[in-house]
Design brief:
5-stranded parallel β-sheet; about 240 residues; 4-stranded antiparallel β-sheet; alpha/beta; 12 strands; Rossmann fold; Arc Repressor Mutant, subunit A; globular; binds calcium ion
Length: about 240
């Protein structure tokens, strides 16, 4: 085990009782904790304190959690766990599409929150150390930009590589065509979202066992795409350590 530094968590939550409870409990668990009670302060502290993870309430005064995470994603990959009192499916999709990494509906148990936070931190540690995305037999080395499938070299165009990396980085989250277009092609790209569909088709031909019945890159009708290898969660395997 490498030497452990205390991880810093930023809690952005306007309900003061919940904010204090979370702060107390995360400190008890050995984390450094910063807090903010509204959106603008949350964004300011996210920039100033450089936290390892942000717990972000959806409904906040000043600037809601979605706007905050969108603003943050322009400049950082800090894992964000979104809290919300609303539980409809659409909210879940919006939450993940916005760039949040995970999502928890209030009321939640503290144990559940701690487990999710630990899982997100482990995931970001692994990515920081290895700079490799690996799932479902697909492996992307983000530094050398080499791709492999089942251990064999996989030829991808730069756009295909970036699109697959974006999907794998947020495994199991549904990403909309607009979001993928913005992240992979850039905000100033003049093409439309069919560009995304075309590149997904090309990717499927390269990585799916049966491109007509894709299992890795799944279409979520009316919304977008999701990468899901269906393999057991690595984070759960880590619990065996
Ligand atoms: Ca709130």
């Amino acid at each position: 085990m490498s030497k452990k530094e205390k991880k810093r968590i930023l809690i952005v939550e306007d309900e003061s009782d919940l904010r204090k409870t979370l702060k107390y409990n995360f400190k008890e668990q050995g984390y450094k904790v910063n807090t903010a009670a509204d959106g603008p302060t949350g964004l300011e502290k996210a920039r100033a304190k450089n936290p390892d993870l942000i717990i972000l309430d959806l409904m906040l005064p000043g600037m809601d959690g979605l706007s905050l995470v969108r603003a943050l994603r322009q400049e950082s990959d800090t894992p964000v766990l979104m809290l919300t009192a609303r539980s409809s499916e659409m909210d879940k999709i919006i939450g993940l599409e916005s760039g949040a990494d995970d999502y928890l509906t209030k009321p939640f148990s503290l144990g559940e929150l701690l487990a999710r936070v630990r899982a997100l931190l482990r995931r970001s540690d692994r990515m920081a150390v290895r700079n490799v995305l690996a799932s479902g037999g697909v492996e992307l080395d983000l530094i050398s930009r080499r791709a492999q499938i089942q251990g064999r070299p996989l030829e991808l165009s730069p756009k295909e590589f970036n699109l697959l990396a974006e999907l794998m980085r947020h495994e199991r989250a549904v990403l909309s065509r607009d979001l993928l277009l913005n992240r992979v092609w850039g905000y100033d790209y003049m093409g439309d979202t069919r560009t995304v569909d075309v590149h997904v088709r090309w990717l499927r031909e390269k990585i799916e066992a049966d491109p007509a019945h894709p299992t890795l890159i799944q279409t979520v009708r009316g919304v977008g795409y999701r990468f899901d290898s269906g393999s057991p969660d690595l984070d759960q395997q880590d619990d065996e350590e």
